[in-house]
């Protein structure tokens, strides 16, 4: 049985899951795309990493809320004899990568913003030399998570949309 930390069934008298999922489906790919684009230039990083990190965190929060509201909905749909397909698993995967991406972007932002304090706080006399800056290295290392966050969110959104359209069409 899945772990439900917070059961959200309704918002404003409407089913909560379809409302909450849109926050994740919009914010996670938007933040991931913005991270990829704005990280390409250091001047853009300076200006946009904080808003991008906040959007990624908000997307992760919405992914969590969508997951928590989807669990009870999935159970009630199954009790009604309907098939939910792979959507719950796709949603779990999208949630995982949304949270992982949000954490990575927050870490990249914090390192970018506080690199000198981090270096002095860790008391490392000399960091290993890289052919690129550490900021660029962390940015490049996070790009695959951004791509996976986009891809898994699209797969989960598509499988959810298919369920809704098949249920309402037939």
What gap, in angstroms, lies between the N and C termini?
29 Å
Low-confidence stretches: none
**Radius of gyration over C-alpha positions, nearest whole angstrom:** 19 Å
Number of helices: 4
Number of strands: 2
Mean pLDDT: 87
Instruction: Indicate the percent of residues in helices.
Output: over 70%
Short description:
By secondary structure, this protein is mostly helical.
Explain the overall architecture:
- The chain has 4 helices and 2 strands.
- It has 170 residues and is mostly helical.
- Strands 1-2 form a two-stranded antiparallel sheet.
- A hairpin with a 2-residue loop joins strand 1 and strand 2.
- It starts with 9 loop residues before the first strand and ends with a helix.
Features:
170 residues; mainly alpha; two-stranded antiparallel ribbon; 4 helices; 2 strands; 78% helix
Give me the secondary-structure topology:
Blueprint: E1 10-11, E2 14-15, H1 16-38, H2 42-79, H3 87-121, H4 134-169
Antiparallel strand pairs: 1-2
Helix pairs in contact: 1-2, 1-3, 1-4, 2-3, 3-4
């Amino acid at each position: 049985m899945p772990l439900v930390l917070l059961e959200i069934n309704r918002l404003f008298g409407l089913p909560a899951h379809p409302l909450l999922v849109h926050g994740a489906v919009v914010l996670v790919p938007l933040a991931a795309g913005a991270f990829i684009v704005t990280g390409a230039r250091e001047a853009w990083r300076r200006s946009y990493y904080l808003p991008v990190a906040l959007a990624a965190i908000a997307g992760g929060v919405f992914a969590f809320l969508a997951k928590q509201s989807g669990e009870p909905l999935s159970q009630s749909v199954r009790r009604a004899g309907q098939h939910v397909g792979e959507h719950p698993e796709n949603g779990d995967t999208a949630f995982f990568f949304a949270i992982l991406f949000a954490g990575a972007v927050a870490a990249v932002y914090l390192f970018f913003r506080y690199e000198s304090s981090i270096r002095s706080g860790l008391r490392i006399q000399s960091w290993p030399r890289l052919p690129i800056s550490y900021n660029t290295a962390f940015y490049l290392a996070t790009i695959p998570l951004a791509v996976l966050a986009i891809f898994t969110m699209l797969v989960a959104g598509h499988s959810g949309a298919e369920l809704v359209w098949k249920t309402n069409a037939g």
